[in-house]
Write a sequence for this structure.
């Protein structure tokens, strides 16, 4: 789940539809939707620059984690996998879905894969579960169940889950940058986290992060298109200068040094490294099914909200509130989730940064084709992406976390405690327990119980009761000796 309202601009008024002027116009319905080729091209560029930060962030998040065998994914290969899947999925969305929606590895879902799946199994096993989640999404679309399942979870709880993911992403950014660190158990303290090192902010890398955060937020407030990407580029340059003139013991995963050759052939070493059912042998079928469900849920609601939001912004929603051709869009989204697992880049999903292109006037899939083409070019610029230190990239996580919260919290009915409390628990348990699964499970269980306690049990969909019961059993497994 990845998001930023920073790139969102006022959409220009659509022109009066004209007759198609060419085959390209006719195929993408450019004139019919009141757009032009120039607008679509501009929109494609705007969307790419608004979301290109994922090329850096996804490898940092996945590359910093180890599987149960202590293996880490190669950063260069992760860049290739991330860019390849984004290019493929976005091009597919443009040609098949014909909407100005770009896709890439979802922020939030990749933390589930890196911090919850991988430590319990091998990387191919974890990615296999992502593929399975994508297959389930496509089956739900094919059977028409996706829209029904969407309606089973109340809007307020969905928003709480989204906010929880945003807060979790923010905590990951703070920890990866060194701005917040874990206090070792040997300290015999009940406080698990501290500011910087020893309670103090020390070192040039932390300063780079702090300045990058302020720059990112300032650009967002100024509504500068591509704010996050601009901040990453600027702070990477600053980090390179600091690294060249100062003695920096360690930058963490990536040292900001100019590569000998910024252009290189992509490394496809991670493509196809997938074990579909190996993870179930490691964690058991119930836990494995819950892992798949967690990935599915994260992709499911993030994509649905983004699709409807971008569709509304692009004026693709009809007067009855329906999105014509949405099944094609949802099918591509499911295929994108599976393809992300197949390339080891984690689940790929729709990006709300697509509103940057819509703000430039994009209304059709041609904009997505342009964005996908730019991702394809980025395949050959891997060395430039792998020189970005986490301190320059992680301010984006704080910004994305804030923007998710700002865009969702107002939609929760805080006067209705049967929805406000579950939403609150979902959003707080994710960062506090360092687990998206726990946040979802506790949110679902509390919602079902509180509605029953309030005498409103009939308002809870059967699907919510079933899922809540599964989570109760999941939490009881250790006490029952089943793990």
């Amino acid at each position: 789940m990845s998001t930023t309202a920073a790139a969102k601009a006022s959409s220009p008024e659509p022109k009066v539809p004209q007759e198609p002027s060419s085959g390209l116009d006719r195929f993408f319905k450019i004139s019919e939707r009141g757009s032009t080729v120039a607008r679509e091209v501009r929109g494609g560029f705007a969307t790419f620059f608004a979301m290109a930060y994922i090329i850096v962030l996804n490898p940092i998040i996945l590359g910093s984690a180890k599987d149960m065998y202590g293996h880490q994914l190669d950063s260069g290969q992760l860049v290739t996998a991330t860019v390849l899947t984004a290019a493929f999925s976005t091009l597919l969305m443009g040609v098949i879905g014909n909407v100005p929606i770009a896709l890439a590895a979802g922020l939030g879902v990749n933390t589930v894969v890196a911090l919850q799946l991988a430590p319990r199994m091998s990387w191919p096993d974890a990615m296999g579960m992502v593929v399975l989640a994508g297959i389930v999404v496509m089956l739900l679309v094919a059977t028409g169940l996706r829209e029904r399942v969407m309606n089973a979870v109340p809007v307020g709880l969905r928003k709480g889950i989204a906010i929880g993911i945003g807060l979790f992403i923010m905590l990951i950014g703070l920890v990866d940058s060194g701005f917040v660190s874990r206090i070792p158990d040997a300290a015999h303290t009940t406080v698990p986290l501290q500011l910087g090192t020893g309670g103090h902010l020390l070192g040039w890398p932390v300063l780079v992060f702090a300045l990058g955060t302020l720059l990112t937020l300032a650009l967002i407030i100024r509504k500068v298109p591509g704010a996050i990407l601009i901040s990453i580029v600027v702070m990477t340059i600053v980090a390179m200068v600091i690294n060249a003139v100062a003695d920096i013991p360690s930058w963490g995963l990536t040292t900001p040094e100019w590569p000998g050759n910024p252009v290189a052939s992509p490394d496809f070493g991670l493509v196809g490294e997938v074990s579909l059912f190996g993870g179930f042998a490691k964690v058991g079928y119930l836990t494995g099914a819950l892992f798949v469900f967690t990935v599915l849920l994260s992709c499911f609601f993030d994509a649905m909200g983004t699709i409807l939001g971008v569709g509304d912004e692009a004026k693709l929603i009809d007067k009855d509130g329906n999105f014509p051709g949405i099944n094609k869009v949802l099918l591509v989204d499911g295929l994108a989730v599976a393809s992300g697992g197949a390339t080891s880049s984690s689940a790929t999903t729709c990006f709300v940064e697509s509103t940057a292109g819509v703000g430039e006037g994009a209304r059709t899939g041609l904009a997505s084709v342009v964005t996908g083409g730019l991702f394809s070019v980025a395949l050959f610029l891997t060395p430039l992406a792998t020189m970005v230190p986490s301190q320059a990239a992680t301010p984006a996580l704080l910004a994305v976390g804030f923007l998710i919260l700002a865009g969702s919290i107002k939609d929760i009915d805080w006067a209705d405690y049967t929805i406000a409390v579950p939403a609150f628990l979902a959003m707080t348990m994710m960062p506090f327990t360092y687990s998206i699964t726990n946040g979802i499970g506790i949110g679902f269980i509390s919602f079902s119980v509180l509605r029953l306690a309030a005498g409103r049990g009939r308002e809870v969909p059967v699907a919510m009761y079933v899922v809540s019961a599964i989570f109760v059993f999941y939490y009881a497994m250790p006490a029952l000796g089943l793990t």
